[in-house]
Amino acid sequence: MLQQPRSLRSIVRPKRQALAAPLALALAMAAVVASAQTPPPPPPPPPNTAYGAPIGLAQAKKVMAAAEAEAVKNGWSMVIVVMDSADHVVMQEKLDNTQYSALAGAEDKARSALHFKRPTKDLEEVLARGGIGLRYLAFRDAMPVQGGLPLLVDGKIVGSIGVGGGTSVQDGQVAKAGSESLQQDASTLTR
Question: What is the mean pLDDT of the chain?
Fold first, then answer.
C-alpha cells in the first residue's frame, strides 16, 4: 500500500519544536554568563577635602602617643609615621622587634593617605574589586594596604599617619587610634 504523502507542515512543525527547547536553554545560559561578566562599579571620585596648615609637633606627639599606646596594649611591634600636610615626616617611631620592611611601608601608607586624601583601606577595597580599580597599581605613591589615614582638623587635612608591621587590620586599628586622638583633641579646643 502506498502511503499518502504527508504535508510539509506536519514535517516542519515537529522540527521547529525540537529546536525551540535547546535554543531557549542556550539563550538562558548566555544571559547568565553575560550577567556574571558585568564589570564592577567604577571607584568613587576623589574626596574634595582641602589641605590645611601642617600639623605641629605637639599635635603629632599626641597622635604618636595614642597610636603607640594601642600597639603596646595589644603587644604588636610596629612602625608609626606621622606626616604633615606638606609631605614631610614629622615623627617616626619603630617599636622593638619590628620587621625592617615596616619602616618604608608605614611611610608609604602615610604618604598615600595624604596624596590620595583618603584611607589606604579605600584604595585596597577598590583594587580588590578588580576591573578599572587595577589602575591604582600604576599610580605613583599608591599604597593600597590598610594602615594609612589622613589627619583632619576642622575638616582640613593637616597630615597623615601610616602604620606598618602588623596585619592590615592591626595597622588600621593603630592608625585609627592615633587619628581619633587628634579629633578628640580638636573637639576639646572648640568647647
Answer: 85
